[in-house]
Protein 1
Amino acid sequence: MSAAHQALRAARSAGREVAVTVIEATDHTSYSACGIPYWIAGDVASGEELVARTAEEHRAAGVDLRLGARATAIDVEDRTVTHEVDGVSSTMSYDDLVLATGASPIPPDWACGPDGPVGGVHAVKNLDDGALWVDLLAATARRVTDRAPRAVVVGGGYIGIEMAEALLRRGFSTTLITRGRVMGSLDEDLGGRIGVGLVEAGVELRTGATVERLETTEGRVEAVVTAAGERFTADVVVPALGVEPATALGRAAGLAVGSHGGYLPDPGGRIAPGVWAAGDCCEVEHRMSGRPTFLALGTHANKLGRIVGDNLLGGDRRFGGALGTAITRFVAGSVHLEIARTGLSTAEATTHGHDVVSLVTEGTTASGYMPEATPIATKVIADRQTRRLLGVQIVGGEGSAKRIDAAAAALWGGLDVDDLAGMDLSYAPPFATVWDALQIAARRLAERI
Amino acid sequence: MSAAHQALRAARSAGREVAVTVIEATDHTSYSACGIPYWIAGDVASGEELVARTAEEHRAAGVDLRLGARATAIDVEDRTVTHEVDGVSSTMSYDDLVLATGASPIPPDWACGPDGPVGGVHAVKNLDDGALWVDLLAATARRVTDRAPRAVVVGGGYIGIEMAEALLRRGFSTTLITRGRVMGSLDEDLGGRIGVGLVEAGVELRTGATVERLETTEGRVEAVVTAAGERFTADVVVPALGVEPATALGRAAGLAVGSHGGYLPDPGGRIAPGVWAAGDCCEVEHRMSGRPTFLALGTHANKLGRIVGDNLLGGDRRFGGALGTAITRFVAGSVHLEIARTGLSTAEATTHGHDVVSLVTEGTTASGYMPEATPIATKVIADRQTRRLLGVQIVGGEGSAKRIDAAAAALWGGLDVDDLAGMDLSYAPPFATVWDALQIAARRLAERI
């Protein structure tokens, strides 16, 4: 939808006409998928609040929006798209095609029973899933009254820990099972702190564990059994194993995908003559490595969407790359953890040939004497030879996460650890120490290189 | 003290000996002056909590610390300092001298009566002042029981609004009188919002007003009278007219000062052979303009102090310049305002010859559907020809202020508005909109250039 609207805006400001048709398989557009765990947690009253622009608003802005229309085939030579509505198939031609098919949750092999989907087990992806989960949790709490209702989350990434937060806050005894570590996109020395926080908030945590099968009663989940033979009673199960680019349509039409399975747009968004792609169905260029990477995030999706919208009408805008910046939080009971990363992790930087030097520094988010002060741990990762910043990771209390943006800006500018240590960041007692936690971390690393 | 400790560290790591003597006129060292308003407000239990390192800790680290010792003269030819303790004068020689005499509150001409200082009127600078204010407010609240105790703050800068917050929170009816605008270091379109917040929290605000005289009874202030003839009952009065570099000692010894009255250290901290300076007694180079400016802030003081400490022993470290980054807040009653700026204001940028283009953009600190979302207004200032970022200012609710650091990092790197609009800043619903407020502001400005 970003591409659609930007194309309309670009046409309008150029005094041109453009006809924009959007084919959408579901009944929803322009909603915040990232908001769904907070809806389930109870922070957001309804799914409608997550909708940034309604179908009516899109149409009023000039978009020919076809909901419940599933694209079934594209022909990039003839420039046509075939789509199906209520079982009726039709084909339309295009001058330019934008693929924005997003990503799909990776389906676990244990989620379906021999008789199909198991009750109580459901992915968290779109608004319909959100509504289902809100109802499912309420129904489960009504049904299970002799003990606390029990949930198992499978997967320790962003959605996994956000759903663990939502379930705890909804009164569910919660187990989190993950194949690897919790928040494996952070280095272990910081990521490990998140597991500690989960346990402190009451999550039963199993890292390095895989689910082997579900036990069911009358088509409903009863327990989750791991490969190691552990059995966890479960009234509901959240599979949160990550997502993969939804590119079947393009692959069937002969369009290339990268090693992560996503389309490979050039910086202007083109993937073939007359064909463009944006969003979670794409791999994006990592600004630090120059290599395509899969980062399913609304930030890149929106940016690339607007770039495509401009370039469709002859613009020459270019995507500047991604840094892998990401934040989330885990807030439950007395635990308030904020989690952030940008740039390359130690493993990624090593893979890309850097001689990596790094340091974790403990600090506080505000002057130590202020009531706002909470601990913050900052890891700075740099190249030993060039002193260039490669990445920064943060785990801390309230006020920690958004500090990553200063590091992201420094990475964007290609700055080094001495720049980060010396730059003029802000200070006042309720907000920082005189040397901000980020700068103390950079300075201490700079002193060691 | 930063310079002293860094010199000791540098000597230790070089296997050298250095004798460091510190001459300090008061009985306090290494305390957070910025924390004093929060101590007065009640956030901090005692002045001791504001002390980062005690005299004993300094001495244990090897500093020969002389408290209550006032330097009265220096001779930069003979390399001697004369100082006075309990009326006894003595002279010591040095190899290198570091001037770190700080800044002094600008004394208002109305603060002294014909018989000397007026009771209830006192500056807020050091720990003794803080203790005096804590006692004064308690005594005033005990004494004035037939109505709310009344305070007048004179000055609308950082200390002025922080003291207004402290006084409101201590139950004082508070008037703020300022010659110009509130927070005149921000452009008027953003700075004006702070005045609105002060009034909303119950402050009686007079902008564009000057104090002419005090009315007193038995040596104690009773009212403040402005040049326009308005009379404000006052049990206590805070003069907060800003500070000026305390350079009398050096000027008497023939050392040069700049147009703001501060020493002019080179990027390594030298002001004359064998003489160095750091902290609020200095002007610092503004990284955006290349010109010396007076920014009395702990951030620069600490950075330059460490640089001097290193360079004293032969190091070659250089101060990278200041951006004028500053934040504060005003929190009272239902009002929570965070205030931040970095880089050049519109007036400063125009003075330095830029063809300025700017825009104020309204946003929210979190996704609109989240309970954390509060309004944030962001002003981005750029050069129309080069598109280079010149400054950013922010006024908004909780979670606004620290966003300035990403802008400061972008300014430090010499980035342009397109970089700020396109860079990979962090997003998650509790923390930001998909395009962070800062990026929406940069993007909207970029579209208009």
Protein 2
Amino acid sequence: MSSRRYAILGTGALGGFYGARLQKAGLDVHFLLHRDYDWVRHSGLVVESPEGNFSLPQVNAYADVQAMPPCDVVVVALKTTQNHLLPQLLPPLLHEHNWVLVLQNGLGIEPEVAKIVGGDRVMGGLCFICSNKVGPGHIRHLDYSAITLGDYAPNYHPCGITERMQQVKQDFEQANIPIQLSEDLLLARWQKLVWNIPFNGLSVVLDATTTEMMASPPIRTLATELMQEVVAGAKACHKALPDDAIAKMLDNTAKMKPYKTSMKLDYEAGNPLEIEAIFGNPLRLATQAGASLPRMTLLYQQLQFLESRKIVLSVKC
Amino acid sequence: MSSRRYAILGTGALGGFYGARLQKAGLDVHFLLHRDYDWVRHSGLVVESPEGNFSLPQVNAYADVQAMPPCDVVVVALKTTQNHLLPQLLPPLLHEHNWVLVLQNGLGIEPEVAKIVGGDRVMGGLCFICSNKVGPGHIRHLDYSAITLGDYAPNYHPCGITERMQQVKQDFEQANIPIQLSEDLLLARWQKLVWNIPFNGLSVVLDATTTEMMASPPIRTLATELMQEVVAGAKACHKALPDDAIAKMLDNTAKMKPYKTSMKLDYEAGNPLEIEAIFGNPLRLATQAGASLPRMTLLYQQLQFLESRKIVLSVKC
């Protein structure tokens, strides 16, 4: 049984699910909350899941990082749109040998976190999970839960499989979370963008589910072309993705149930969109490396427009 | 006073306005109607316009081209989405020396009309007009009315300024319609697409007015990039558009009142969109000529998706 202690920053669809599963598996978990702090402190967490419903009537809940005990692994499970909070949240949580695990979409976040906590403390993870927060402390897990884990070194220099990756893997597997280890975190992040860029972006712009998009021949073509651009962007950054992965990914998407992407859910909920992590950062990285990515750029421009208008609308209301 | 007789196919926002003005100026005009036939036959046409309101209590209205008298100029003022009707509508209207004037958006229509009526009978016109049909036989003209007129020869071979162009110009100017003559119809059609492609397309996809789009820096950039692609597409077809026209066009657009494009109005009204004339035909022409137009293609794909979904929705209702 691991004695590692976990801090979870952001107890929502993602952090609430993984943190609760870790605690249920016997690990010592400490949750940072904001809006739901009072509720969760008194009532704990409830997780509905096809893998088994459970509740944790008592959890270690905090409204302030200053009150949290020293933790071995600090899991950043906020949306990237809240990362402006990290310079305040992370420094009080640093202890001699602990690490920060960034469980977020897109790329370019680890370098920002490294600026705050140092380049040798950061790991990254990509979550393949369908999960929603449906009420205070109430998580509805729908499908999947796997995480691809990679270690971080400055400039995303590949780290191979490190000892601490193995340790995190052991803890999460104890909680029945499938963990895949990646020797190259940036490669893994680009790989996930092959799906996220076309389907997150187009689902918002076209107000569409994956099923509707896959049923449309022009959108299947466009999704393929966007995926090819992501592969080209990765290649410009010296990350070789298998070109034949695209056809397989489209096939899998066509077989999925009608699915609203995370960006579409955020858009419908009026939450900020993770445009910079998923579009802006990859575009800047790849175009600086010489790639020309007109379709990704166009989608980025359309999303910026929709996001800025949403902000104007909500200020008016 | 001209003795030329005009047939107007499509007595809507465009054909209703121009036809009424020609009749008011003393020309002999014959209107083909469909839905509004009974109304207009009994009550005539009403035109509201900042240039002067007027009504024509009696017009020559027809529900069937077979009943129309021989006309010197047959004006096609239908939406391009109704052009599948032309093989039925045009042949009965052909007489020894008459012409067909295509007043439609986009490009690639004249070759289709030439297949029906012969390559030496076709002229084309591009309308710069804001006008709506607000009720049966009731046209609300808002702004502008100019037409750029060009003669057609097979494969859009430039015709220069022909005698019959001068004659049509004379008739329309008699009705106070500003007419510009173009020596090269295909060049003129590409020129108009420089505006129509970005703003018609994006207004539908982003649900936005010209003012909202011009207020957004990413969309101004995108509109510029789309315009550059249209210029590149024209160039591949050996039509040289002035590159500096783009900045001027953007400036003018920024100064316009909030304006819904014709495609946006069609979308809101549930009418078919002129996607093929404005996007499909230019794209096919330019890519066959070797141009690579990823942004125009993406917008075309998005519009096809929105259009196909709209059709599914209306079949369901």
